[in-house]
């Protein structure tokens, strides 16, 4: 939030479940251009490492197929 071109909003500040439709409502009310969902996973296995990334795109199926083919 130190950069005047950007403003971050939190959908929650504690460890409670917040339904997707409520998170979307917060993003819409905030006039968000980008909705980023950050999750911190944990494990009792000390050798566990890595990360997960989920995204939703608005591409047409043909464009999406081309993008996935390019990645593969």
Overview of this structure, please?
The protein has 72 residues and is mainly α. It is built from 2 helices and no strands.
Shape: extended
- Mean pLDDT, to the nearest integer, reads 81
Compute the CA-based radius of gyration.
Answer: 17 Å
Biggest sheet architecture: none
Strand content: under 5%
The tally of beta strands, per DSSP, is 0
Q: What are the defining features of this structure?
A:
mainly alpha; 72 residues; extended; single chain
Quick summary of this structure?
The chain is mainly α. Helices cover about 30% and strands about 0% of the residues.
How are the elements arranged and paired?
Layout: H1 20-29, H2 61-71
């Amino acid at each position: 939030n130190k950069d005047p071109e950007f403003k971050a909003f939190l959908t929650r500040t504690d460890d409670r479940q917040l339904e997707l439709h409520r998170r979307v409502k917060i993003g819409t009310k905030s006039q968000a251009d980008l909705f980023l969902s950050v999750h911190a996973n944990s494990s009792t296995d000390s050798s566990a490492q890595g990360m997960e990334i989920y995204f939703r795109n608005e591409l047409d199926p043909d464009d999406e197929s081309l993008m996935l083919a390019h990645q593969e």
